């Protein structure tokens, strides 16, 4: 009876952030309920400059990630939604190449049925996909808009400013920890195990790639022929959030040297930067209930495309049922400072 009562009285849901996570939560809430969904997004998130590479083995060791196949399947369904809205391709599904730079990675990759060994240290991950992130976000938002969602291009600086909403979802990436209320929320949660990391990418011109390529770093195809994205830096300590082409090139050049036999010379055209949130000591994101009406999906790190669709659906179902226990325990980790 409590679950029905909660669903019957939930009227307005605010989602802060309209990147992969925010739009996924929005889409699943819209398909599971008839509640009013309003997104707030200042367009500073990392999703729009994301690599666009999604596959089951994103770790440096080449091991399969937690619930990776389910994550890929759910993501593919949302890619279909976006393509149906835009009537154009937003994802290239022909696989991606992986450079294996040590024996452990070679051994792990060789054990998977969807991985084909091309050469000694060169593998094809057939299930891998290259997502043209800006197009995907555009298409998924359009699908949400047609189902009634509203989006405001503004920053939200305090959760108290959303007091008239019945539920608030923080899918705000690096801005998540800017909300001081998180440190004084109910149930004794004083600190979430999160860290900001700066990522810079270089937009380059060069030979057309057959497929995107990952190894130590990556070279990803884009929606524009002859233009690739080279990245990404992983800066735990940074003095500025702004992009620096010189700094990014210096950090990325050692990684790029391993790709040159496969990509040829790349001419750097532009540098982009964004701040993403990662979970300290773990690669899995966080999905949990912060207080009576505040929920969060954050810490996606480099696995945003792999997990955003699956976790968006899981979180939407938990919100509508008002039962945090519907979220897997692996995603509800907390660090509490007593």
Count of individual beta strands: 17
Going across the biggest sheet, name each strand in turn. 6-7-5-12-13-14-11-15
Distance between the termini: 36 Å
Q: Per CATH, what is the topology of the domain at 1-93 and 130-193 and 281-338?
A: FAD/NAD(P)-binding domain
Secondary structure layout:
Layout: H1 2-9, E1 12-16, H2 20-32, E2 36-40, E3 53-54, H3 68-86, E4 91-92, E5 96-99, H4 103-110, E6 115-119, E7 122-125, E8 129-131, H5 133-146, E9 150-152, E10 167-170, E11 194-205, E12 213-215, E13 217-221, E14 227-231, H6 245-256, H7 260-263, E15 267-279, E16 286-289, E17 294-298, H8 304-321
Parallel strand pairs: 1-2, 1-10, 2-9, 5-12, 10-17
Antiparallel strand pairs: 3-8, 4-8, 5-7, 6-7, 11-14, 11-15, 12-13, 13-14, 16-17
Helix pairs in contact: 2-5, 2-8, 3-5, 3-8
Compact description:
About 30% of the residues lie in helices and about 25% in strands. It has about 350 residues and is of the alpha/beta class.
Overall description:
The chain has 338 residues and is an alpha/beta fold. It has a domain at 1-93 and 130-193 and 281-338: 3-Layer(bba) Sandwich (FAD/NAD(P)-binding domain), CATH 3.50.50. 28% of the residues lie in helices and 25% in strands. The chain contains eight helices and 17 strands. Helix 3 crosses helix 8 (304-321). It starts with a helix and ends in a 17-residue tail after the last helix.
Keywords:
FAD/NAD(P)-binding domain; 8 helices; 6-stranded mixed β-sheet
